[in-house]
Amino acid sequence: MKGGKLADREEEIVLKFDRRLLFHFDWTLLGMVLGLCLIGLVNIYSTGFSTAETGADPLYLKQARWILLGLIGMTVAFSVDYRFVHRYAYWIYGIAVLALVAVLVLGYESRGSQRWLSLWGFRLQPSEFMKLAVIVTLTKYFDDHRVSAPFGLRDLRAPFLLILVPFLLILKQPDLGTALIIAILFASMAICVGVRWSALLAAAASGLLLIPFMWYFLKDYQRERIMTFLSPERDPLGSGYHIIQSIIAVGSGGFWGKGFLKGSQTQLKFLPEQQTDFVFSVFAEEWGFLGGLVLIVLFLSLILWGLKIALHSRDFPGMMITYGFILLIFWEVFINIGMVLGILPVVGIPLPFLSYGGSSIVMLMTGVGLMMNVSMRRFILQS
Amino acid sequence: MARLQNRLDEHDPGAFRQRFKILFAIVAAVLFLLVLRLWYLQIIQGYELRLKSENNSVRLRKIKPLRGLILDARGTVLVDNQPSYDILFLPNRVKNVQEVIDRLEGLYAKKDLLLSADPFPLNGKPLPFVPVKLEKNVSWEKLAIVETASLELPGVYVDVVPVRQYLAGERMAHVIGYVGEVSKEELDKDTTGLYGLGDPIGKYGIEKLLDPLVKGKYGAEQVEVNAFGKEVRVVGKIEPTSGYSVILTIDAHLQKVAWDALAGRPGSVVVMDPRDGAVLAMVSSPSFDPNLFNRGISHGKWEALSNHPLHPMENRAISGQYPPGSTYKMVVAAAALQEGIITPETAFYCGGTFELGNRTYRCWQKNGHGKISLHRALVSSCDVYFYNVGKLLGVDRLAWYAKSFGLGSGTGIDLPREKAGLIPTKAWKQSRLGEPWQAGETISISIGQGFNLVTPLQLAAAYGGLANGGTLWRPHIIRRIEAPDGSTYRVFSPEAHGKIPVSRENLDIVGHGLWGVVNEKGGTGYALKRKEEDVCGKTGTAQVVGLPDNDKARREKKISAQFQDHALFVCYAPYKNPEIVVAVIVENAGHGGSVAAPVARKVVDAYFAQKKEQNRPQVAAFQSAESSGRP
Known about the structure:
The complex is a heterodimer. Chain A is mainly α. Helix content of chain A is 70%, strand content 3%. Chain A has 16 helices and three strands. Chain A has a three-stranded antiparallel sheet with strand order 1-2-3, covered by helices on one side. By secondary structure, chain B is of the alpha+beta class. In chain B, a hairpin with a 5-residue loop joins strand 18 (478-482) and strand 19 (488-491). Chain B starts with a helix and ends with a helix. At the A-B interface, helix 1, strand 1, helix 12, helix 13 and helix 14 of A face helix 1, helix 2, helix 3, strand 1 and helix 7 of B.
C-alpha cells in the first residue's frame, strides 16, 4: 500500500491544476466574501474619520492592503489541491505551535498581552493562523481514526492533547477569546464526526466541575469582565463602560441608522475598541437595523453556502475542512455580535471580515480559499 | 491509488445529511436570535437610547496624573508640579469656531487682554468632535473671564494640566532634563503602549531616563454633560496614580555653590564621593531654562538655544571632551612608577626645553626647573620631566594605564548621552587615520595634549580611584526610586567596576605629590591651601590648538578668546580618607591654577562648612543625652 507508485500518483493529482477547475470556480462565495470585506473597509473608514491625522497611514488603507495580501493567500489556497494540505496537516500544526512558542519568547507586547511576532516589518498574530491549523489538524486526525466513531472519551484523549498545547500557549499570552474559539472548534468538529452520548455528558459534567478551577487561572481583568457581564452596573468605567456605550450606540441607530460618518457614539469616541472588537456597534449605529439585518443575512448566507459545500464535498477531508472553517466563522460572528449586543460577556473575539486586523483577514481569506478549493474539486475528483 | 479510491467510496455524505440539517436549523435560529436582539435594542428601545446618545450623557475623561517628584540627597525638592490652565473648545454644538474666538476676544478686550494663541488653533479644518485648544497656560484673569461667561461661550471649557516646575532651573537642567509633548517618532518607537498623543514625555536627563516610572498612570472620570457641554455630575471616578519619585545623590547646596562659582563662564564642575562614586554635584555652563519646554517651547527660542555657539543644551560634564592637559600627569607618574621606569629619586634636567629630532618642546616655565625628581615635578608641573618619562614609557603602555584609570571610555553613569573621550594608541592612529604614530606625538601625549580627550566626569572618577587607593567606582546620580505610597521601589547601590593596576605604595607617592601641589610653596595649586583639611590636586592648562612656537605670535593669537587655553583643576580632600573629589574645567579661560582652582576651592569650602554645620547639633544632642543620663 505504501509503495512509491501510490505516492507518485497522489503527487500528480495534487500538483496538477486542471483547467476545468476554473469552470467550476465558486463566484458566489467570492462575491459574498468581497462584499463583507467592502462593508468592513467602509466601516473602518468611518471609525478613523474624526481622529486627528497623525501622519501615519489611515487604518482603512492598511486594512485594504491586508485584504490584497489575503487575496494572494486565497489564490494559493485554492490552487493547491486541498489533499496536499491534508497530507501535511501535522507539519502545519508543528509550525503553528512553534510560532506560538516564538510569540511567548520573542513576541511583541502591547497593552498587557504578548500576541505578536515581527516578521519582515509585518506584525503577525500567530494565534489567528493557529485557528486554521487546528481545523486542518483535527481533520487529519479524525480522518485517520474515524473507524472508531462515534468516539468515546478514550478516543478523544489524543486529539484533546493535540488541542491542549496551542490552547494553553494562547491562554498564556493571554488571549482568552482565541483560546476559547479553539476549544469550541474542537468540540464542534468532534461532535460532527460523532461522539457517544455518554462521552458528551461526561465532558459536559467535568467542564462544569472545572469552572471553579478555571476561575482561579483567569486574569483579574477577565474575571472582572465576567462579573461585569452578570451585572454591568458594577464597573461603569472599565468593562461595564464598553458594554453600556456599545448598547447605546447600537440602540441609538434606530431603524434607518444615523447615517455614514454621523454616528455620534463612534465619532465622539464614546465607543471603545471601535476598529476591532466593537466594529458591529459602529455599523449598527450608522446603518441602523436595516444595515444590521443585511449584514447578518449576508453572514447567514455565507455560512449556509459553506455548509452546502461541506455536504457536497467528494471526500471526508474536504467536508471536515469546510465544515470546521465555516463553524469558525459562525462562532466568531455569534460571539462577537452577541457580546456587542450585550447578550454574551466581553471576550476579545473579532468579527470576521469586518474587524481591523491583518492576521485575521489573511487567515480568513486563506480559509475561504480552502473552501473554494473543496467546492471546485468536487466535480473533478470523480474517478 | 486503491487506498484513495477506498476513501472516496467510504465517504458517504448522506450519513452526515441529517446532522447538517440540524446544524442548518441551529445556525439560522441563533442568527435569528441576534436579529431579535437587534430589533429590541434599535426599535423597541431605540428612542430611549437615541436620547441618551444625543444628550451625550456620559463622557469618559482622562485625568492626568502628577509626575513623580525629583529630590536631592537631603530631601530638597528639585522638581515639583503645578497646575496650568488651558482653554479648549469642543465644536459639536457651534459650528463656527471663528465666531467663538471672536466672542472670547471681545470679552478679553474689555479687560485689555489679548488672545495669545501660539500656534493659532485654526490652522486646518476643525474636525467635528475633536477639541480645539484655543489658548494654553492662561493667566488667572483670563481664567476668571472664561469661567464666568460660560453661557456666552458654548462649548468652551477649561482643562487643568499639571506642568513641571524646575525649582533648580538652569543649575540642574542638564542632570534633570526637561519634559515636552511626545513626538511622532517617540510614539512610533514606543513598545510599551504607555504613551498617547499629546502626553508629556521626558526628553532629556533623568526625566527621559526614568520617564516610564516617573510619568504616573492616567485616571478616568465618567462625567455627565448637558447640551452646552457643561458637566452636570460625576458618575464614577478612578483616581490617577502619581509617578514614582526619584532621589538623586546630588547635594543641591553644593550644586548651587559650583554653579555660582563658574559664574556663567562656559565649563563644567563635577563633585563626586570617591568612596562610592555618588555624584554630589554636576554643573554644566552655559545652561538653559528647562521650564521653557513645559508648555511647548516657541520656535524662536528653540532655534536660539540649538544654534547657540556655546551649545547650552550639551551636558559638558559627560559629553564635553577636553584634552586633560597637566591633570594627565598623575596617570603618567603612576604608570611610570608601576612599570619601574622611574623611582621617586629618578631626576631629569629641565632647562625649559626638550629636543626630539629637529623639534623643540617647551616647558611652561621658560627658564626651566633645573634638576628635578618626581615629587617636585608634580608640584610645579614640570613638562620636561614628563616628556622624558613619556618617551621612556611609550604611547601604548601609557594608554593601557590611562584606560585602567577609566579614561577614554564611558563611565556608565546613569544619564543619557555620555561620550567616551579618546586615549590614543599606535593601532588606533593607524586604523583611524591610516598613518603611523610619530615619536613626537608621544611627547605631547605625556602632558595630556595631542589626541587625548577626556570628560570632566572621567577625570573626577580617575582621581577618585587614586584617592581611595585604587578602586574605580561607577559614578551614579540616582540614589533611590520611591513608589507613590512612599515605599522604596529600588535602591541603587554603589558598583565597583575596576581596580587600578598600580600598587598602593605607588599611588601614595603620586598622592603625596598632589598634596604638594596645594600645600607646598611653589605648588601650582597653592592658592587652594586650607587650614583645616589638606587638599590634594592637580592643575591643568589645556591648549586648544597648536600654538606658534614664537612668543610674540603666541601672545597675539591668544587675544582671540576661542584659542585661549582651557583651565583645569582636579582635587580631592581630605588627604587622608578623602570624602570628595572635584573636577573643574573652565573653557578658554587661561591657567588652571588661577582660574579653575578657585572654583574648586569654593566647592571644597562649602562641603566642609556644611559638614561642620551638620555635625554640631548632633554632637550637642549626644552630649546632652549623656549628661542627663547621669544622676
